[in-house]
Specification:
alpha/beta; Arc Repressor Mutant, subunit A; D-Maltodextrin-Binding Protein, domain 2; 3 domains; ten-stranded mixed β-sheet; two-stranded antiparallel ribbon; 12 strands; transcription regulation; HTH lysR-type domain-containing protein; WH-like_DNA-bd_sf; DNA-binding transcription factor activity; transcription
Length: about 300
């Protein structure tokens, strides 16, 4: 058994494709197939179920996948520790990011500062929902990720506070108010975000027992803004995602805070602080220096 075989096993499982795994690694499909057959022969199990053009994990394959990821992660951490002992700050860092709040407001400034300090570390960013990122952290698909806190199942590092705001068409009477009472949402068409904040918006509505008239469910912030701009409904989004530049492009939209004021805390998370890679620890340190003391 080799680390290369384990990496191929993990990639085939994630892509559910020999072809895509081979393309990712820059090797031939036959090399991928040979590596997996050798691994299956070594363990005397069938890791995959191959049916025509479909590839699925077998029962034992699903059981072993998480251990394979753990071993690859440990090997990467060991190599980074060895590099650090030689004074070489290089390696890879996989980051999970969600929604416009993290990907637009936090990540660019943070990546710029990180690259200036650690130019030899190769950075990969995976984007999804808050739930996706948390799952990637648990499965060690990413080394570190942004999270809405608190998260009892992860090791977390608070960075800053954000609030939820309402995007309101200017033609709606409530747009003339300085803030939107959350109970007023029941009186207007509503646009539900399917992006990073969806779970938290749903929890907010449930908390105040509000059942708005959901007219649309959309995952792209720009699409939501365009629909509000067309006077199609009110939306609730994270304040950090709403830049002045975006609002200027949508002149028929106003943003208003909610009553009661609704906050959320954004931070970084890892599965286990003790086993976090040096690259991930350095990323957290840079983030804390940049954001921890900002209001």
């Amino acid at each position: 058994m080799t680390l290369t075989q384990l990496e191929i096993f993990v990639l085939v499982a994630e892509y559910q494709s020999f072809t895509l795994a081979a393309k990712h690694l820059g090797i031939t499909q036959s090399a991928v197939s040979h590596a997996l057959k050798s691994l299956e022969s070594h363990w005397q199990v069938n890791l995959l179920i191959r049916e025509q053009n479909q590839v699925e994990l077998s029962h034992i394959g699903r059981q072993l996948l998480s251990y394979a990821k753990e071993m690859l992660n440990t090997a990467q951490i060991m190599q980074q520790e060895i590099n650090a002992s030689h004074g070489i700050q290089q390696g890879t860092l996989r980051i999970g990011s969600f929604g416009a709040s993290a990907s637009i407001h936090l990540l660019p400034e943070l990546l710029n500062a990180y690259r200036l300090r650690y130019p030899k570390i190769e950075v990969f960013v995976e984007e999804g929902t808050d739930h996706d990122v948390s799952q990637w952290i648990q499965e060690r698909q990413v080394d570190v990720g942004f999270a809405v806190l608190p998260r009892a199942d992860l090791e977390t590092y608070p960075l800053l506070q954000d609030i939820f705001i309402a995007l309101i068409p200017k033609s709606y009477p409530v747009a003339q108010q300085s803030a939107l009472n959350i109970q007023d949402l029941q009186d207007y068409p509503f646009i539900m975000t399917k992006a990073g904040s969806q779970t938290h918006v749903e929890q907010l509505l449930k908390q105040y027992r509000i059942q708005p008239k959901i007219m649309y469910q959309m995952s792209q912030l720009l699409t939501i803004l365009n629909m509000v701009n067309l006077q199609e409904g009110i939306a609730i989004v994270a304040d950090m995602s709403m830049t002045p530049e975006l609002l200027q492009l949508h002149p028929h939209v106003v943003k208003r805070p909610l009553i009661p004021n609704t906050q959320r805390q954004i931070g970084l998370a890892v599965k286990d602080a003790k086993s976090a890679s040096p690259a991930a620890k350095a990323f957290i340190q840079v983030a804390q220096e940049l954001f921890s003391f900002k209001p």
